[in-house]
Amino acid sequence: MTDADPKDIHSHKRKKWSDLKAENSWTMFKVIAEFVDGLEIMNKVGPCVSIFGSARTQPDHPSYQLAVEIARRMVDEGYGIITGGGPGIMEAGNKGASMAGGESVGLNIQLPFEQNNNPYIDPGLNLNFNYFFIRKVMFVKYAQAFVVLPGGFGTLDELFEVLTLVQTNKVSPLPVILVDKSYWGGLKEWIVSVMAREKKISPKDIDLIHVVDTADEVAGIINNFYNEERQGRLEPNYQL
């Protein structure tokens, strides 16, 4: 007598999808089309700094005004600005870039709420995506630094995506800067006192994150990194 296959024993208990729509090959063509459109446009844009932050931040909020200042400062340093293309901190980043005469890129995502194109994106650099993962590729590939202002789940998702890519050497090391110590200080402290202490990350991973308060500090970190560690070399972060 042979042992019964466990798969046969449990087959009557196996869960089934309540509703499963068949995928068709045309879905892949839509994905490819978004990649092609994004790459063709972004390959013509110079080195940029990506600015992340909440879509809910109002223009009279200090974080909005600081994002405008940071974007203007980075344009003065020779960089373009990439944002998610929507309102709040994204709008502030594009506004600062536009005011300073720099390249102002918006990587929009189709959402049922919150996301509308802001008016400060360069007309030829306003990209719209259906797929988050393609949008993230565009964010990461062309940015020479990531500046993260206060935000919610989406901002945290973008932040930890970047940190994971750097930690795992999928992209080269580059500055990741959290702006507003009062907002981000507790997160950095938790990473040090809990994650590092429990050995869930390496001690060197802590050094990936800078926490600052001013546009001057942001510019200083980025300039020092490219002058000292990269010897002025600027290039996309990976090849597809």
Q: Topology of this protein?
A:
Elements: H1 6-9, H2 26-42, E1 48-52, H3 62-76, E2 80-83, H4 89-99, E3 104-109, E4 126-129, H5 132-142, E5 143-148, H6 153-167, E6 176-179, H7 181-196, H8 203-206, E7 209-212, H9 215-229
Parallel strand pairs: 1-2, 1-5, 2-3, 3-4, 5-6, 6-7
Assigned CATH class? Alpha Beta
The count of helical stretches stands at 9
Distance between the termini: 54 Å
* Main structural class: alpha/beta
Level of helix content? Answer: 40-55%
CATH architecture: 3-Layer(aba) Sandwich
CATH fold-level assignment: Rossmann fold
SSE topology string: HHEHEHEEHEHEHHEH
Task: Report the uncertain regions.
Answer: none
Overall 3D shape: globular
Q: How large a portion of the residues is in β-strands, by DSSP E? A: 5-15%
Write a structural description.
The protein has 240 residues and is of the alpha/beta class. It has one domain (28-229): Rossmann fold, CATH 3.40.50. It contains nine helices and seven strands. The protein has a seven-stranded parallel sheet, with helices on both faces. α2 runs parallel beside α5, α3 (62-76) runs parallel beside α4 (89-99) and α3 packs parallel to α9 (215-229).
Question: Notable features of this structure?
Answer:
240 residues, alpha/beta, Rossmann fold, seven-stranded parallel β-sheet, 9 helices
Brief sketch in words of this structure:
Helix content is 45%, strand content 14%. The chain is α/β, with parallel strands linked by helices and 240 residues long.
